[in-house]
Specification:
It is a single chain. The chain is built from eleven helices and 14 strands. With 319 residues, the protein is of the alpha/beta class. It has one domain: Divalent-metal-dependent TIM barrel enzymes (TIM Barrel), CATH 3.20.20. A hairpin with a 5-residue loop joins strand 5 and strand 6.
Length: 319
C-alpha cells in the first residue's frame, strides 16, 4: 500500500515537487490539462505527461476523468454516442500505450453536487449536502431520465470498452455517484449503493472492469456498511485506488470532515485494506478549507497525506 497525491490538473514543477517532498510515490491527475484533439487525447501528449511526473521520481499511476464532452452522449445515449465511443477507445489505447495503467472516470452527467457548506472545527469550511435542498433545483439536461435506460447505456459501454482495456492491459473503474442519492437534476445516480456496484462488476467480469473506490462517497451511501464494502470489493481485487477521506454521516444529509474526525474509523478501514491484500495507492481527495490555505489546499493535503502515510505504516507494521 502506498501514498499518492491527486486532484490537480497540471503536472507542474510546483505540484510535483510538493508531492515528492511530502513522501508520495504515486501521482493521479484529475481532469488532466491535455490538448483536446477532436474529442480525444493523443499518445504524444500522454507520454510527455508521464515523463514530466517521472522526472521527480514519481509514478503517474492513474488519470481520473476526461472532459465530460468526450463521453456525455455515451452516458445519455445521444446522437454522437458511436463517435464518442470510437474516440474513447483511441484515448484509452493511448493511455495504456503511454504507460499509464489506470483510468478512473464517473457516470455522473450532472457532476458532483453540494449545497451550502458547513463550518466545522474552529471555523474550517467543509463541503456539505442536503438532499431536501438539492431536490428543489431544476433539471440539468433536456428531460427526466429513468433508471433502466441509464443502466442500459452503462452496460452497452462496459461491454464494448472492457475487452479493449483487457487487450491493452489497462484497468478502468467508475467513481460512485456523489452524493449517492436516487436522482439529481433529473438524472438517476446509478452507482449509489453496495448492490449497484455488485451489479456493475458482473456486467463484464474482468480485472479491467474495476472500481475507483472513493471511500468518502461509499461512506455516504445510505444504509450500507463501509467496512463490509471495503472487504467485499478488496477480496475480489476490484479496488484500483482509494480516495481516503471522511464524512460526518450518510445521505440524505452530510458534510465532509477532516480525515480523522468523521464517523468512519480510518484505522479500522486501513486495517481491512491490508487484510484483503490491497496493493494500490491512497490519495487525500477533498480537504476542508483551513485558515490561509491555498485554493488547492496545500496545508490540508499535507496533513491528510501525512495521516495516510502514518496509517499505512501503523497497520503494515502491526501485521
Amino acid at each position: 500500500m502506498r501514498a499518492g497525491f491527486g486532484q490537480f490538473r497540471d503536472a507542474t514543477p510546483e505540484y510535483l515537487r510538493f508531492a515528492a517532498q511530502y513522501g508520495a510515490t504515486d501521482v493521479l491527475l484529475n481532469h488532466a490539462n491535455l490538448p483536446n484533439v477532436g474529442g480525444k487525447w493523443e499518445l504524444f501528449d500522454l507520454v510527455k505527461l508521464r515523463l514530466a511526473v517521472e522526472s521527480y521520481g514519481l509514478k503517474l499511476s492513474a488519470l481520473e476523468n476526461v472532459p465530460a464532452s468526450f463521453y456525455d452522449h455515451i452516458m445519455l445515449n445521444g446522437p454522437r454516442r458511436d463517435e464518442q465511443i470510437e474516440n474513447m477507445i483511441v484515448t484509452i489505447r493511448n493511455m495504456a500505450r503511454a504507460g499509464i495503467p489506470i483510468f478512473g472516470y464517473n457516470w455522473m452527467p450532472s457532476m458532483v453536487w453540494r449545497t451550502e457548506p458547513a463550518i466545522i472545527r474552529c471555523g474550517t469550511v467543509a463541503t456539505a449536502f442536503d438532499n431536501e435542498e438539492a431536490q428543489k433545483l431544476p433539471l440539468t439536461h433536456d428531460r427526466e431520465y429513468d433508471e433502466e435506460e441509464m443502466w442500459a447505456n452503462l452496460e452497452y459501454w462496459i461491454n464494448i470498452i472492457t475487452p479493449i482495456a483487457e487487450e491493452e492491459g489497462i484497468r478502468l473503474g467508475i467513481h460512485p455517484c456523489d452524493p449517492p442519492v436516487e436522482k439529481l437534476g433529473g438524472i438517476p445516480q446509478l452507482l449509489r449503493s453496495f448492490d449497484s456496484y455488485k451489479r456493475l462488476i458482473e456486467i463484464y467480469p474482468s480485472d479491467s472492469n474495476a472500481i475507483e473506490f472513493c471511500q468518502g462517497t461509499f461512506s455516504e451511501m445510505q444504509g450500507d456498511d463501509i467496512y463490509e464494502m471495503i472487504r467485499y470489493f478488496g477480496e475480489r481485487h476490484k479496488i484500483m485506488y482509494v480516495h481516503f477521506r471522511n464524512v460526518s454521516g450518510q445521505v440524505p444529509k452530510f458534510h465532509e470532515e477532516f480525515i480523522n474526525t468523521g464517523y468512519v474509523d480510518m484505522h479500522k478501514a486501513m486495517t481491512i485494506y491490508n487484510e484483503v491484500g490491497f496493493d494500490g495507492f491512497f490519495i487525500d481527495d477533498h480537504v476542508p478549507q483551513t485558515y490561509q490555505d491555498t485554493e488547492w489546499g496545500h496545508r490540508g493535503r499535507a496533513f491528510a497525506n501525512g495521516y495516510i502515510q502514518a496509517m499505512i505504516e501503523a497497520v503494515t507494521k502491526a501485521g
